[in-house]
Write a structure and sequence with these properties.
94 residues; mainly alpha; 2 strands; Notoamide_regulator
Length: 94
């Protein structure tokens, strides 16, 4: 069986200011490393979660934000709870 674990050293440095584009929508490269099943019990694919979170993050935000995007993405990918939570992820996907 293949080990599909993602380790922080695999992700650090892979997230940059350059964004991939999927159907005309920029996608933060960090999102390609998420395992959404850790954050929600809703049965959705990682690809769908990536697109949904990207859509939210790319919407025009007012001058203030509810959370820091970079800190949120780092915790989302690295499965940490400092700036990311199951409740926040589920709220973004709702």
């Amino acid at each position: 069986m293949l080990d599909k674990s993602i380790y922080p050293q695999d992700v650090i440095g892979s997230c940059s200011a350059s964004f991939a584009v999927n159907n005309g929508m920029p996608i933060d490269p960090c999102l390609h490393y998420i395992d959404i099943s850790h954050w929600t019990t809703v049965t959705i694919s990682n690809q769908f979660a990536t697109q949904a979170i990207s859509l939210y993050l790319n919407m025009k935000q007012p001058w203030w934000a509810f959370f820091d995007t970079d800190l949120f993405l780092d915790d989302l990918v690295n499965v940490e709870n400092n700036f990311c939570s199951r409740m926040l992820v589920n709220a973004l996907l709702a």
